[in-house]
Amino acid sequence: MADRSALIVFGGWDGHEPDKVAALFERILKGEGFAVEVSDTLDAFADAAKLADLSLIVPIWTMGEIKDVQANPVFEAVRDHGVGLAGCHGGMCDAFRSHTEWQFMTGGQWVAHPGNDGVRYAVKFDRSNPHPITEGLADFEVTSEQYYLHTDPGNNVLATCDFPTPGADGPHVGNPCRMPTIWTKTYGKGRVYYNALGHHADVLEAPIPLETMRRGFLWAAKGVGL
User: Fold this and answer.
1) Taking a C-beta distance cutoff of 8 angstroms, is the pair 85, 187 a contact?
2) Which partner for 94 in 21, 90, 98, 108 could form a disulfide, CB atoms 3.0-4.6 Å apart?
3) Torsion-angle region of residue 105: left (phi > 0), alpha (psi -120 to 50) or beta?
4) Are 71 and 102 in contact (CB under 8 A)?
5) Could you give the angle at the alpha carbon of 129 between the alpha carbons of 126 and 130, nearest 5°?
6) What pLDDT digit, counting tens, does each position of 125-184 carry?
7) pLDDT, tens digit, for every residue of 140-150?
8) Gap between the Cα atoms of 174 and 108, Å rounded
9) What is the largest CA-CA distance in the chain?
């Protein structure tokens, strides 16, 4: 347990309550025996040697710009050293819209949320794809933003939601689909976990979303696993 270490870096657009989400994730990780560092600057990513020794990196940064000296150590830590990466919502998959390597690493990029905040929709686990992150969890409904993402076809999709949702009108309505909501993937040697929920911290505090984040952190973290 003592060897578990995580870095949480939060900031960007305040509407996603990055400080509250960071506090929630810190509490989860400390409850699992992680030594946790929390930073509000992307410069925390710039120390390549430090990142390479971590178990887990948790980005919580929406709509920002990242410099190569900050991004490259993250890529190297995950790809080359097997450090885990885990996060949610815009804090991980709408972090740096102009940085395609970040999107390649994370497995997706937000492009729309038809109906904005307040859409009621169901999150459905893929029963044909059993996984320790979702084992024993029931499908659930949430009222929040419903993310429409461009995703990596190589993702291991664990949960989806249906588009279109009644009341969430938009140009997508003629193209019904199952949108990936929770997925895992690998980036080089590292494990990556993503959950599209989390517009506000309270969405993640509900029992099932909270449990998926806890398990996702453990699954992704180097040397930990479920």
Assistant:
1) yes
2) 90
3) alpha
4) yes
5) 100
6) 999 999 999 999 999 999 999 999 999 999 999 999 999 888 778 888 888 999 999 999
7) 999 999 999 99
8) 22
9) 52
Contact 116, 145 (CB under 8 A): yes
Q: Where are the domains of the chain?
A: 5-220
Q: Which residue bears the tokens 């509490």?
A: 27
The average pLDDT across 193-210 equals 97
Alpha helices in 88-179 (DSSP H): 89-93, 100-106
In angstroms, how far is CA 195 from the centroid of its own chain? 5
Residue 220, both tokens: 């992704």
Which CATH architecture fits 5-220? 3-Layer(aba) Sandwich (3.40)
Write the pLDDT tens digit of every residue in 14-71: 999 999 999 999 999 999 999 999 999 999 999 999 999 999 999 999 999 999 999 9
Residue with tokens 């991980």: 92
Q: Which two tokens stand for residue 20?
A: 């509250």
